[in-house]
Model the fold of this input.
Amino acid sequence: MPIRQLSETVINQIAAGEVIERPASVVKELVENALDAGASHIEIATSGGGLTLIRVTDDGSGIPENELPLAIGRHCTSKLSDDIHDIRSLGFRGEALPSIGSVGRLTLRSRPPGASEGAEIRVDGGKIAGPRPAAANRGTLVEVRDLFFATPARLKFMKGERAEASAISDVVKRIAIAFPAVRFTLSGPDRTTLDLPATGDGANGQKARIAQVLGFDFPENALSIEAMREGVSLTGQVSIPSYTRANALQQYAYVNGRPVRDKLIAGAIRGAFADVLPRDRHAVTALFLALDPATVDVNVHPAKADVRFRDPGLIRGLIIGSIREVLAASGIRPATTGAAAMMSAFRPGPTSYGHAGPANGHRSFHAGFRAAAPAGFDLSHSPSRPLEPVSAERAFGEAVQAAFDTGPLASADARAGATAVAPELLSMPLGAARAQVHQNYIVAQTEDSLVIVDQHAAHERLVYEALKQALASRPVPSQMLLLPEIVDLPEDDAERLAMHSETLKRFGLGVERFGPGAVAVRETPSMLGETDVQALVRDLADEIAEHDTTDTLKERLDAIAATMACHGSVRSGRQLKADEMNALLRQMEATPGSGTCNHGRPTYIELKLADIERLFGRR
Ligand code: ADP
Ligand code: MG
Done:
């Protein structure tokens, strides 16, 4: 076949292959156009998951009749002069409208504010009709019917109406967070309706919009970020570690107001939370990066969701550093949802507040009650109760273990309740231990609340923190085994453990090769106490294999510490005496991050006395 120029329609269909992947991409492009046109209200209606119909109406600057043919022309844009390095609009490639018109049936109807009447132009699978006069409100209406009718191969890849409709709703939410001064509505037969009234510009408007989209319990369980480094600013909110999701879909990130799904940002968020969350849980975030447009390239992919930073290290460091900082400063603080769920579960009457078990997600709590729920501790805000920092020696972990080894165990469950409590203990954040119940829960009392601690989760966290702290100073003390324990393993696991024996030694674990397919363990970290060495070593081998290639040394060490902590923890079922329990509470208070276990579950719940009294109708 001789070389020839492709037709305009085929060229546009090729471009559409990248820009218009699914109905949600059409919605994204059209909403971005409306925002670029300065709209204050954007209405979106869809049916058939957007495959039958997408209609986006705005009250923006509109398009004059004589420019309509240009608007649907390839590489025609009003947004870019001749400098690709200074992009301040969402669009700039002049590709969306011609691409959409080449694969679906597009109608563009518009009336600029000054014009007395409107006009419309149609593009039907590439065939242009118009422009001609048409009755139109001020602003622009774009309608897309029968998307992909002209490219049946693409149509086959659609996931079904419901999935496409929910992708559309996600796109709208994602964009809406960045434009709190604009009202967004989503309606139509697709039953994914949204109405997000404008909340206004500025920090408060921004926060209110985030709450509209992420749920009103998010701000209660979020920490604010405000950081600046070398001209790059990072603001927004991240969830506390006990408020997480099973996937990363609720991580919203913006670069100069543009919603992005960027690997570097996602990786930095994961890194920042690596210490406090298990691998399968994800923080909820809304983060806004603002930087000189010349130092970031948004022209990486036609859909513009990827960006490239001139200084990726700076961005990564800024995100990780500032998230870790607020996490550390927030100290121990469990999600309000834990206590709220518990309180509403206690409520008399089977259905008055709906079902509100924690497994139900975060949105299920009765709004009125949530407001009354205790806010948990925020040590950074209670200067009247300064916490003694734990000395290096005590934090060293032997104290952690020692707390569980004071004298023989008695049999009564609730021994601590029998004696009077020291008043100074009552004024501590986690109060005075009063009893241990069901052999795993410590019930403590403060001046104005009841605290319930999951001793297993709490101890796991303390050991983990102690291991990490020990790493920073000197090796972890170990105890020699009377007889070395031989662990049989696949050869490459044995090899990997041997390769890391230096690191493991710093954690107090002495491992050496013992012929092919085996290692010998001669010493274990004292703070773990009696451990199942076989299980520990196998878990460590898995952990090292998983982290070896990808993670930094620090991430690897943290993973090893977490695995060890899990093995050394006081399992539920261990009975504790009053001073053992109080020692645990004091160590929790002194340990940053001890409000959640390594897996992000809360280690304690606090019920305010006022709320308990309310339950009993005393208030
Ligand atoms: P781009 O957004 O990259 O410029 P598009 O193909 O999406 O390319 O749009 C082409 C042009 O049509 C835009 O530059 C703009 O001038 C005009 N346009 C599109 N949608 C609207 C709208 N909703 N309101 C006003 N003008 C619009
Ligand atoms: Mg555009």
Remarks:
- The chain is about 35% helix and 20% strand.
- Residues 29, 32-33, 91, 96 surround magnesium ion (ligand 2) (CB under 6 Å).
- The mean pLDDT is 79.
- The two ends are 87 Å apart (CA to CA).
